[in-house]
From TrEMBL:
Family listed: Belongs to the class-II aminoacyl-tRNA synthetase family.
GO BP terms in the entry: histidyl-tRNA aminoacylation
PROSITE patterns: AA_TRNA_LIGASE_II
Pfam family name, one: tRNA-synt_His
Species this protein is from: Calidithermus roseus
Entry-linked CDD domains: HisRS-like_core, HisRS_anticodon
Protein name: Histidine--tRNA ligase
Superkingdom per UniProt: Bacteria
Single GO cellular component term: cytoplasm
Length: 426
RNA sequence: GUGAGUGUAGCUCAGCCGGUUAGAGCACCGGUCUGUGGAACCGGGGGUCGUGGGUUCAAGUCCCAUCACUCACCCCA
């Protein structure tokens, strides 16, 4: 087809017949509703925050050295008053902003919130990564207890379980406290500086700005160097408090029966994360296997200019969950079939059919043919839609003041007045 | 932003060594068929072969450019 008007690359229409599995509306809805069911059962409350904020909120939220800001991966726009706004790349900053703005500190703590919706990143898209993508997000604010971390991880795993996914891998790590990271980064700089010339260009920059990033560099040369120098993992640099915290989270998870592995090299792209960090991976959903991740961000609120509010939360990538469901061929519940399919047999019956339909909706799911059909065609359509009943409306019925109601499961049919239809459908 | 692959009907695709008016299946619409189980048969609409240029007597086919998509890199959900 010649190019006409299309959606922006990396954005997608979500509808039932979409060619791409992650954008089939029933799949999408299944994931969001399942997540919502689990999270509501935990007492978390839904919050919808705007999809755009003052860019400053989002920039501070993702951290100044984060690539999202550095490489301009956040969409920004200017409104008429010259305010610089940004489309959210993730919702955590908005939720922390809302917590402070609405005085949620006087609520019973922790305040546990969840949301879902579109997120935006100005990146080149690929499988499982889009300019507009969707995320289910949970945040527990106002508690620094490791029990809250363990609950968040357990809830996240429970959501994937409820979805029917099996091939999950929970990787738990800790990024320590800020001072631990300073020590670790100094250690890494000292370790890699002698190899600076051999490192990739990207990693040479990282050497000063964010040496932890060198560890998961994709460059083979970098990886060879990493292997050669024998890097100690971040976990070994935890201070006593962060270490104890990490061990308590791990201990709670074991007692909760959540299986996980310790990943000592887990790294966070965002500056405000402290201590607990985790990712949930799935095999074979593309170049990136992460279904979602989470972590603790006790410093975020202060960074936004508010009081210190400890918090922990996670994000679930909806499209990535869908890819995993497709990969595992998990059966998605089918949309309910119509209770009744109305078949007008002549022009005069069209309006009558619509009147009957409107009388039965919304108690029953009622669909109809919008042009006269012969009975065979009408029946065929009703069967294709897997309707429970079909009703024929023709000249004979009109004279007798009835419709012919056919039970498509049993094959039996009766003539009933329109007023009696509801009783037969119930 | 970088690299590779792919572009023929709404979808999945065929189209030989360049050769007449570009095809099939599915889907859609109509008929056989105002009277009953997803059928069958017949018919129909729908394509500037992604776009532009070049080579050639002749281009869906070869060449160049461009655009789009896909995958991957960077980064991330």
């Amino acid at each position: 087809m010649a190019l006409m008007l299309t959606s922006v690359p990396g954005t997608n229409d979500i509808f039932a017949q979409s060619k791409e599995y992650p954008f089939r509306e029933p799949v999408f809805r299944y994931i969001i509703q399942t997540a919502e069911r689990v999270l509501r059962s935990s007492g978390a409350q839904m919050i919808y925050t705007p999809i755009f904020e003052y860019a400053e909120v989002l920039q501070k939220g993702v951290g100044v050295t984060s690539d999202i800001v550095v490489k301009k991966e956040m969409y920004t726009l200017e409104d008429r008053g010259g305010r610089v706004l940004g489309l959210r790349p993730e919702p955590t900053a908005s939720i922390v902003r809302a917590y402070n703005q609405h005085g949620m500190k006087v609520w019973p703590q922790p305040v546990r919130l969840f949301t879902w919706g579109p997120m935006f990143r100005a990146e080149r898209h690929q499988r499982g990564r889009y300019k507009q993508f969707h995320q289910v997000d949970y945040e527990a604010l106002g508690s620094a207890d490791p029990l809250v971390d363990a609950e968040a991880i357990a809830l996240m795993v429970q959501i994937y379980r409820e979805l029917g996914l099996k091939g999950l891998e929970v990787k738990l790590g800790s990024v320590g406290d800020p001072e631990d990271r300073v020590r670790y980064n100094d250690y890494l700089r000292g370790l890699f500086r002698p190899y600076a010339q051999a490192l990739s260009e990207d990693s040479r920059v990282r050497l000063e700005s964010n040496p932890m990033r060198i560890l998961d560099s994709k460059s083979e040369a970098d990886q060879r160097i990493v292997a050669e120098v024998g890097v100690k993992p971040m976990l070994e640099f935890l201070g006593p408090e962060a270490r104890a915290f990490h061990e308590r989270v791990a201990g709670y998870l074991e007692k909760l029966g959540v299986s996980f592995s310790i990943d000592p090299s887990i790294v966070r792209g965002l500056d405000y994360y402290v201590r607990t960090a985790w990712e949930i991976h799935h095999s074979r959903i593309g170049a990136k296997s992460a279904l979602g991740g989470g972590g603790r961000y006790d410093g975020l609120s202060e960074m936004l200019g508010g009081p210190r509010v400890p918090g922990v939360g996670f994000g679930i990538g909806v499209e990535r969950a869908a890819l995993a469901l497709e990969e595992e061929r998990v059966q998605i519940p089918a949309d309910p079939a119509p209770d009744l399919y109305l078949v007008p047999l002549d022009e005069a019956a069209l309006l009558e059919a619509l009147q009957i339909a409107q009388g039965l909706r919304p108690r029953f799911r009622v669909e109809m043919a919008y042009a006269p059909k012969n009975p065979r065609k009408g029946l065929e359509e009703a069967l294709k839609k897997a309707a429970r009943f079909a009703a024929f409306l023709g000249e004979g019925e009109r004279q007798r003041g009835v419709v012919t109601l056919k039970n498509l499961h049993s094959g039996t049919q009766v003539e009933v007045s329109p007023a009696e239809l509801a009783g037969h459908l119930a």
